[in-house]
Structure formats: C-alpha cells, structure tokens
TrEMBL record:
Catalytic activity: L-leucine + 2-oxoglutarate = 4-methyl-2-oxopentanoate + L-glutamate; L-isoleucine + 2-oxoglutarate = (S)-3-methyl-2-oxopentanoate + L-glutamate; L-valine + 2-oxoglutarate = 3-methyl-2-oxobutanoate + L-glutamate
EC number: 2.6.1.42
Amino-acid biosynthesis recorded as keyword: yes
Keyword terms, alphabetized: Amino-acid biosynthesis, Aminotransferase, Branched-chain amino acid biosynthesis, Pyridoxal phosphate, Transferase
Protein name: branched-chain-amino-acid transaminase
Cofactor requirements of the protein: pyridoxal 5'-phosphate
Organism: Gryllotalpicola reticulitermitis
Amino acid sequence: MSLSLNLTDVSPLQFAVTPNPAPKSDTERAEILAAPGFGQFFTDHMVQIHWSERGGWHRAAVEPYGKISLDPAAAVLHYAQEIFEGLKAYRHADGSIWSFRPDQNALRFQRSARRLALPELPTQVFLDSLTKLVTQDAAWVHEGGETSLYLRPFMFASEAFLGVRAARKVYFFVIASPAGSYFKGGVQPVSIWLSTDYARAAHGGTGAAKTGGNYAASLLPQQEAYEHGCDQVLFLQDGQLEELGGMNLVLVTKDGTLVTPESDSILEGITRDSLMQLAADRGHAVERRAVSLAEWRDGAASGDIVEAFACGTAAVVNPIARFKSKDFTIELPEIPAEQSLAMSLRRELTDIQYGRAEDAHNWLYRVDGGAR
Ligand code: PLP
Ligand code: COI
C-alpha cells in the first residue's frame, strides 16, 4: 500500500507550537534513553487538537507535555468512547527520523473512529501531528540498537454529559515515549496462556477497533497468564484462535507456510501484514484464515507446526516457546535463533525500519520535518 493521499483529505490545520520552558536536561534524557523499558517515560511535548460538532477540527497545538484537565462528567470516563494507535519513529544512521507505514495507522484510526462513533481525523492531520511532535522532540530518538520512539495518538469523548450518546466534543492527542524491548527479558521465546474462561471480543463487537475497552477486557485474563508464568494471553472465539492481548499470532508450518487467524474481531496488525508480505516476497505461502484450536494442537503434536510468533509494533516479533492452558501445554521445538523464520523476518523488518535495508515497498515516511 502506498502513501498516496486523497487531495481532498489534505488538511489546512496550522499547529501552534509552544516549546516546553523546562524540558528534561541532556543528562536526564540520556539516563532515560540508556534504559527506556516500554511506556514508562514521556518526551517534553505533546500534540493536542480539539473537535466539536459545530467547529470541526480546531486548536491544533504542540505544547509542553502535561496533565489534562477534564470535567468529571466527560463521557470517556463513563462510557469509554476512546480509540488509540501505536507506531514508532526510528533514527537512521544519517540522523534522519522515519516512521513505518503511518498511513496504515491513520486509516486504522479512522476505522476505529467509525466503530466508536467518533469523528474521523483526516489522514494528513494524523501524519502532520506525528511530524510536528517528532520534530519538536527529535532529541528523544536514539540512534543505534533497537530503541525507538513509540508514538501514541489517541482520541476521546471530552463532552461533559451523562446521557448515553456519541459525544459532540472530542480531544485528540499524541504523546511519545522512548521504547526498548516490550518484554522484560528482551527478545526471548515467550510463554502464552490460552484463556478459556474469558473472551476479548465478540462478532459484531469492537475487537477490530483499537479501543481501550478491548484492553480493559484483557487485563484479568492477562493477570491469570502472569499467575501461570506466562507473558501474554491468547484469546479464542468459538474454538478458533484469535490474537494475544496486544499482539497478533502467526504460526509456521514445516513447509514454511505462514498461517495467521482471520476473523472480524481481530485487530488487523500492520506488523503482521508487513511480515506476511516480506515472507511472500521470499516465496513463502501465506494464509489468512480461521485456525481452530484443534488444528493447532494436532499440528503442534504431529510436528506440522514448527514455529509460532507474536508480532506487533511494541513487541516487533517474538518467538513463542509454549502455550499453556488449564488442561494442556503445547511445547514448540527449540530452534536456534539463526534457523528461526520468526527471527529472520524480525531482522529483515527491523533492517528496513532502521534504514539498513532497501525499503522496496515504500513503507517509510519521514517524520523529522526534513526533505524525503
Ligand atoms: N493486536 C492487538 C490487540 C494489538 O494491541 C496490537 C498492537 O498494536 C496488534 C494486534 C498488532 O498491531 P500492529 O502490528 O499494527 O502494532
Ligand atoms: C502496540 O503494539 O502498539 C500496542 O498498542 C500494544 C500494546 C501492548 C502496547
């Protein structure tokens, strides 16, 4: 998919920029960037844009990162009318900063908005908001290793009222957080808990939207996963595999076919789509289809399924070592990293993201205000 934009979608919004008068010192920032973890520290600025039924999108600003003041009756606090996105900015060896397929995040944000009865942010405003923030906070994007700047656009109902209807006032924000590895152990094979008591989403529900409620529903089963020594939870629906709490699932068969669950209640991951494309470019068969738990169990037992991995913006690609449930455990064969398809696709993807390999699909989009 290309970055070509519909010209009617181009926004005339001008961003007012107010630099933070008290940004973190170079020393404080360097300490944070040396071990950022995931989602624990935030940069000096944020983007804020307001929307109202009467005024449309207005008051676009880059301003000091800080607290939001909300009326206690703001609809989001009661009825969870909220959506978000997650993508990263990467610094290349020449100093330029790029994000990966942000047009796809912009389009998914619009799909999520439609499902949650929120206004659709024009694609160009979404992209501009990233560029404005990254330009302002460029010092927070480290070069080298696999650190990046995680960008979190989000939108919520700010109107104060208690009737249950779509809000007529909405806030859009983008915040940014330096990111290292999502899992504490780095890129190590992880254990996955199969949730049989709880569902994340339902047909006709909000599973395909990136909305806070889906994550709220995943927290209790995620706790259950931790209690069983697992890192993430895998959800099922009607006996079919769906996805993890915050990542998609891909299985690899012994003939090198990549199989990933397809359903109307899964978040369509951009990382997954990109990995499937890279695998197809190498000549692998890729299948997006319903995968039953029975197929998966039988395949793992017979040796037909040789690898499984989790993928998403935050996690990138993480091999899965085992699946546990109340009744059984499925162990996958231990594969040395240099023979793992998951690890080799991970390397190919990150090489493109960090500008170390050719961007044959034109996936990169410059976000530091420099010329493309
Ligand atoms: N599924 C869920 C529930 C997620 O939260 C994410 C992360 O964003 C993904 C899948 C992967 O999506 P992406 O690759 O676009 O980050
Ligand atoms: C992401 O990967 O961007 C997500 O939103 C998932 C979450 C687990 C951080």
